[in-house]
Amino acid sequence: MKIIGKHIFVSLILMFLISSISELKAIHIIGGEVVYKCLNLDTIRREVKYQITFTMYRDSKSNGADFDDPASFGIYRGGGNSWSFVSEISKVKVQNIKEIDIANKNPCILVPVNVGVQSGVYIFEITLPIINENYMISFQRCCRNNTILNLVNPGDTGAAFTTEITPQAQLTCNNSPTFANFPPVVICVNRPINFNHSAIDIDGDSLVYEFCNPLTAGGTDGATTPGSPVSCTGVTPSPGNCIPPYDFATFRTPNFTFDKPMGGNPLVTINPVTGIIDGSPNLLGQYLVGVCVREYRKGQLIGMLRRDFQFNVTTCEIAVMADLKASSKTQTEYTINSCGETTIDFTNLSTDVRYIQNYYWEFDIRGKKEIYRTRDVSVTFPGLGNYTATMILNKDLIGLAECSDTATITVNLYPSIDADFVFAYDTCVAGPITFTDLSKSGAGAIQKWDWNFLEGKSAAKDPIFEYETPGLKTARLIVEDKNLCRDTLAKPINYYPVPSLLVIEPNTFTGCQPANIFFDNLSKPIDNSYLFEWDFGDGKKSDALSPTNLYEDVGTYTVNLKLISPIGCETTKTWPNLIKVVPSPKAGFTFDPEKPDLDDNVVRFTDTSKDAIAYLWNFDSLGISLIQNPTFTFKDTGVFTIQQVVLHTSGCTDTTYAIIPIYPIVNFFMPNAFTPNNDGLNDDFVPVGNFVGIRSYHFTIWNRWGDRIFSTQDYTQGWNGQRNNNGEHSPPGVYAYLIEYIDALGENKNVKGHCTLIR
User: For the chain, how many structural domains are there in total?
Assistant: First the structure.
């Protein structure tokens, strides 16, 4: 809806909170543009005189640097990536500093107190020789607000504002275009921008608009005071030292690029012919946007105007908005269609009621005006036809003329339409249902049918449909006539037939004893509301929809199924000799020894199976055998799975398993005396033997007073006769020892004894 009235912006805008630590940080630049005006063309001297106007915009609420006063500009000649310095225009004073009215003169916009924009103008004149190269006039400065969302490191990003004067522009005393309007500072999120960013060209040249990449220059390095740069990355770069070309601003790709600077849904774009920026930004934040205007004369490009500017996207609340319940809506127009009813209740949805002080409805009923002043109205029209009306909020309210809103209403009264249909089907045998449309409309023939059977749809006039599942179904019909009038009718269908054919899986089976068989009932339509009487032929029965039966005996079996629907319809089917169960062997074996180890590692296997004619043994991954009673030697430790597969004459097999662990044996002995005299013989008291597979180990020595004088958990380490290895020799005598350990089988063991220390 086009809002012509009271807009109250409740801003959650990203605050301009970043204040400069000093003027050197200079976080203040919002945007700017450079234009030129031709003052005189001297064809004798081949000189042209221009007035250069640079307009700069700064954030007046960021506590950043003020306008440079004076400022310096650089003049260059060349083109593309090759430029040379011509001269510097210095000591240009700023003038005409003013606050921009960001409320757009709308008394119903409440502007956030922390949003402010100032503009300042620099004007100077230059006389240039006419050359076959472009001239560039530029101003360089750092920096931009570091809260800009679509740039990388925005707080360290400076700006270069330029204009180029082409050779043809010099020869023809051309004037650059100038922008007609100042961009909006505050933009509402998720609402169209629709800003006319067009320019005016007094020479009548053709203008083409596009988003372009803003130029950058300068930085946060170098100078201690403005005007005293030490490098091209300083706050105010030297025009003579820092020549074009300039870098482009770095956008946060892939979400933002210079030609898609604000994203949006729909995408924010600029019309190349009209210059209108349209689209709806959908993310809160600050955005740098560059706009270029290409100037053509007789199809030849003779110049380009650049402007970059910071847009602020914020949350806005529209306080007064006309709205009502309608059949269809546009921004300002509402259409209400009624089919057969001449009394219409108009439901008012306008907001915000706190700011609406009166309502005004005006209906044109066959040339006669009817006026209502309530929020909701009910109007009885004299008959079929088309009627118009207007609803105005805050009409003629003194002081709030700009804070009203209007809705234009069209009422279409059409003849009635009535949906109706019948259906027919065999209630006991599953099959298709035939539907016949009986709908009528006062506007003529029915134009459209929309059938919904829950399990499917149709657009035919008289469809045929078959349900795959039983149950209480609902068939719904929506009909539509040429006036787009619709009516809906739904009818219940008690659909509980029996299947025309009973189908189960398996449809034949031969298996080994015992045979556990799942009977999958594939008949349609059925569900658990039906009664099932299964007879499996082995004396067992079931009432499940899809049961499982275990056939334990050898033989051939006939299966029978009787099915009864919830409404009493029934059907029966018999499958003669459906199941055949043949004999199976019974696998089994023993082995000796029962607890083999590496010392006793030859294992003899004895078959104890029944009714087997062939044998397959798998000794884990170590080997196989086909004899009835094999022998196998285990050459290493481990836990092994032994598998026996036996075969019956019927072709059936049976399998059994056994787990055989082969553990290492921990076996050691202790000497009864030792002589720690460093002669290389019996210097340590240490156990000797096999410790492979041991899980834990603790060896201690005790004197006759019960003091522990030696301890180790390393079975390779012995006692050297010292007291706790501190260099103090123990006296000759008898000492007790204790060894505690866990063997490979996980059993706790301990060995106690005495040893004699001889010196």
Answer: 6
